[in-house]
Each structure stands twice: as structure tokens, then as C-alpha cells.
UniProtKB/TrEMBL annotation:
This is MFS transporter. The lineage of its organism: Bacteria, Bacillati, Actinomycetota, Actinomycetes, Kitasatosporales. Residues 233-426 form the Major facilitator superfamily (MFS) profile domain. PROSITE patterns: MFS. It is found in: Cell membrane.
Length: 426
């Protein structure tokens, strides 16, 4: 596949003077911080208020991630047909309204696992649309030669949200309750809505009767074919799916393991995730220099190896409180460092090689295949944790993660080498 044709880029002013990008960046940052608060508060709500176990945590988490399988493909058709800025606004508002139901049910003494599953699914559906839409929208407001830098900044925001979000979520949950932490996420989504509303850029109206402009179900299969035919995209898709399964399984198990066996409270779990996320921030800062030094394929193999091996450190926990705490922080820090570097270059690569008029559908197909394993990881790990024990389950998933990376390094390296000449590593 040739490099995608692009619309006329805006004048080169630098990202710090691209005010529409700054608004998109700040809105995404606020929303991510709130989402990280809920990512911690929702399982703690299940464990604390409802006094449930690992399988129930896995079920609720899985329902929030399930839309990656059943909503994301349709989202691609929507995003390539409608105005992407309006889509971003609509789904942010939808997430806020859905989460606002949680404190209402809490005070009505009507919280239940089925209710939380339904809310989690709605929030997950809106998030699935949002994450495809903003990736498809970014090349519209940012020049192609600024995409690596722009994605580095967005990944830095994600890292900051991982630092501040869990800590804030743990603090709010411990002092005011998990329902209040979720209410804070509602406020963050509303704030993001306001900031995104202020974006001045308007996409040209999509006219014509071409296949790219008609929302047809068959276009979903065309997008999967695009990923399969492109050798590098095919390798990246398989690796991301494997890694995401293991990532979500480890995260689901660790939240329960930390509370029930390491005896951490909400503040302790939040602190582990927040300190560990410092690695993600360092990864965002190192992504471009490392890519310039090592090249595209070596950067991906090395960074994915770092991220895939990090969960092995969790296997060493279980001793003293302080040693377990420090090992967990180190594990999440190393994991975040490697994964952030990997993501910066992979996202920029996809934005560079996929034609702009089908990027929504292609991104949706990619996310369905790579995010689809998320709910499977949550559900399977919850059951596995109850069947063989939490520590044994974490150990098993950690080994599976390393096996996936070895296959990526040995089999995929040759395909990745064919992309060394692409602009996104410059």
C-alpha cells in the first residue's frame, strides 16, 4: 500500500501554535484523567459496596470492554460518514450521562452487578467510538510530519492521567466513597465536552456517491482486508491483540490480588498505579529520540519486549508489604515505559499509511481485532483467579505475555523492517 493521499495540510506553525490541536489535546487529557479514576473506582465499588469477588470484577470490567467487539466496527462507518468533531462531542456527553446514574443508584440503594454491567457497557460503547474518532480526526488538524510529535503529546497526557488518575481515584474512594470518584469522572467528561466544542476547525462536507462515503456493512469487511493485505499492519494487529489480552488479564487480577492478598486499601492501589505510570511519562518523552536512534522495527521490538516482560515482577510479590509495593510500582513503571514508546510509533504509522477517507473504518477494524481480547482477558482471568488462585493466575498470564513477544520478535521482525523508510520514524 502506498502512503495515503492527504488533504492540503495547514501551514507549518508547530503544534504549540496549532490551537485546535491544543484544544483536542487538553480535552483528551481531562477525559483520560477522569477515566482513570473510574477504572480504579468501579472495581473497588464492586469489591467494597457489593462485597463481590474476582469473577464479578471481571464481569463488570469485561462489559465495559465488550463494545470493542460489537460497537467498534459500526463506529468506523459512522466516523467516515459524519462530522468527527460532533461525534466526539456526542459520545463525551453520553459517557457523562451514563456514569451519572451510578451515584443515583447508590443513594437509592439500588446498585447491583447487572446495573453496573449495563452502565459499563454504555460507557464502553461511547469510549469505543470516541477513541476511533479522535485518532481519525487528528490527521485532519495536524500535518503528517507532526504526527509522531502529536501522538507523543497525547501519549504523555495518557501517562499523566495514569499518574494522577489512580491516585486521585484512590484518595476520593478512600475519603468520600467510590460513588463520588465516579461523579468526578462525570465532571471531567463534561469539561472535555466544553473544550472540544471550542475547536474551530470544520471538516468539509462529505459529498458524492463513492464507496468511501456510503455507510455500507460490506465496508467493514473491506477494512479488515486492508489490514490483512498490508504486511506490517497485519503483524502489528496480531501482536496488539495478544498483548492486550494479557494486559487486561493482569490488571483485572492485580486489583483483586492487591486488595485481598497484599492487603492494600484503595489509596495504596491508587498509589501503585500512579507511581508506576511515571514510566509511561518517561516513555512518551523518549519515544521520538529512541525511534530516531534505533529505527522503526528495532524500536517496536525492544519496547514491546520491555512491556511484555514487566508482569514477571508481579510474580515476586507476596513478601513484606514494602517489597510487594515497590515491586508492583516497578512492574507497572517498566510496563508503561515500553508500551508508551510502542504505541506512539504504531499509531503514527497507521495514520501515515491509511488513506484519510477510510481511516475511521480501518481504525475501527484494527481496534476490534486488538481491543476485542480485552473483555476476554477480564472474564477469563477472573474465572482463572478463582479456580487456581490469584498468584498462580498472574504467573500464568505473565509467561503467556512473554511468549507472545518472542513470536513477535522472531517472526514479525522481517515484516517490520520493510517499513524502515516510512516518514513516521523521521
Amino acid at each position: 500500500m502506498e502512503t495515503a493521499p492527504r488533504t492540503a495540510p495547514p501551514p507549518r506553525r508547530g503544534l504549540w501554535r496549532n490551537y485546535d490541536f491544543l484544544k483536542l489535546w487538553s480535552g483528551e487529557t481531562v477525559a483520560q484523567i477522569g477515566a482513570q479514576v473510574t477504572q480504579l473506582a468501579l472495581p473497588l465499588l464492586v469489591l467494597g459496596v457489593l462485597d463481590a469477588g474476582a469473577s464479578e470484577v471481571g464481569l463488570v470490567t469485561g462489559m465495559q470492554l465488550l463494545p470493542a467487539l460489537c460497537v467498534t466496527p459500526l463506529a468506523g462507518l459512522l466516523i467516515d460518514t459524519w462530522d468527527r468533531r460532533r461525534i466526539l462531542l456526542s459520545v463525551n456527553l453520553g459517557r457523562a450521562l451514563a456514569l451519572a446514574v451510578v451515584p443515583v443508584l447508590y443513594f437509592a440503594d439500588a446498585l447491583s452487578i447487572p446495573a453496573l454491567c449495563a452502565i459499563a457497557f454504555v460507557v464502553g460503547a461511547c469510549t469505543a467510538v470516541f477513541e476511533v474518532a479522535y485518532i481519525a480526526y487528528l490527521p485532519v488538524i495536524v500535518r503528517q510530519d507532526d504526527l509522531v510529535e502529536a501522538n507523543s503529546k497525547l501519549q504523555a497526557s495518557y501517562s499523566v492521567s495514569q499518574i494522577g488518575g489512580p491516585g486521585l481515584g484512590g484518595l476520593l474512594t478512600k475519603s468520600l466513597g467510590a460513588w463520588f470518584a465516579i461523579l468526578a469522572n462525570v465532571a471531567s467528561y463534561l469539561a472535555a465536552f466544553v473544550v472540544l466544542y471550542l475547536i474551530r476547525h470544520r471538516e468539509p462536507a462529505r459529498t458524492g456517491n463513492t464507496a468511501a462515503n456510503r455507510p455500507r456493512f460490506s465496508d467493514i469487511f473491506t477494512s479488515f482486508g486492508l489490514l490483512w493485505r498490508h504486511r506490517v499492519l497485519r503483524v502489528l494487529t496480531f501482536q496488539a491483540g495478544w498483548f492486550n489480552f494479557c494486559e487486561q488479564a493482569v490488571m483485572t487480577l492485580f486489583l483483586v490480588y492487591a486488595v485481598k492478598e497484599l492487603h492494600m486499601d484503595a489509596g495504596g492501589v491508587g498509589t501503585v498505579l500512579a507511581l508506576g505510570a511515571l514510566g509511561s511519562l518517561l516513555g512518551a518523552m523518549a519515544a521520538k529520540p529512541l525511534g530516531d536512534r534505533l529505527g522503526f522495527s528495532s524500536t517496536l521490538v525492544v519496547s514491546m519486549g520491555v512491556a511484555s516482560s514487566a508482569p514477571l515482577l508481579l510474580v515476586l510479590t507476596g513478601g513484606s508489604d514494602w517489597s510487594s509495593f515497590l515491586l508492583a510500582v516497578l512492574a507497572f513503571g517498566i510496563y508503561g515505559f515500553g508500551l508508551t514508546i510502542y504505541n506512539v510509533h504504531v499509531v503514527a504509522f497507521r495514520q501515515s499509511v491509511i488513506p484519510l477517507d477510510v481511516i475511521g473504518r480501518a481504525t475501527a477494524a484494527y481496534r476490534m481485532l486488538t481491543y476485542g481480547p480485552f473483555p476476554l482477558g477480564a472474564l477469563i482471568s477472573g474465572v482463572l483467579g478463582e479456580r487456581i488462585g490469584l498468584w498462580n493466575a498472574i504467573s500464568t498470564i505473565a509467561v503467556i505475555s512473554v511468549i507472545g513477544w518472542l513470536a513477535f520478535a522472531l517472526v514479525g521482525r522481517k515484516s517490520l523492517g520493510s517499513a524502515e523508510h516510512t516518514e513516521q520514524t523521521s
